[in-house]
Amino acid sequence: MVNDEDAGAHDVTTARPGGRADPLGLISGGEGLLTGTVVCAAAIAYSAGHVSSTARLCIAIFGTVLVYWLAHLHARTLAFSVTHGHHPLVSLRLAVQETWLLAGASILPILILLVADAAGATLRTAAWTALIATIGLLTAYSYLAGVRSGLGPWGRVASAAVGAGLGVLVALLKVALH
What we know:
6 helices
């Protein structure tokens, strides 16, 4: 029988610093959200010049993020089992709770890509729209992380600039590849 009480100290959904609940892991899972968005942007940057349709680009994005998430999920599951001695099923549950945002991060960029396509944009324009949106998302996520961590105004701006900088690096990769 799997003992869920063994996992209570590591359950990301129960509480976060300050004692407030984080039921979806949206605050404690910021690392996965940022990483997933960068992986998504990189998939857009690379794949957009190598696929023939928006549907294929969406599959490439989702597939890339999914494989990356599964690798991360496996690593976190092993880490919980080895480090904390949890049963593998408890470790898997904890790892899913901790990492799901990495996979979920692809939803918004894919939706933006599909909306641009539905609005009549070419594949190239839709890809650039989604890539620019990911830069905006990285900037916003980084700014909010600065707010939540108690940074002052300049620290928040610096945090947002780092997020934007990651997105710009991916855009530069796209330009270099195509």
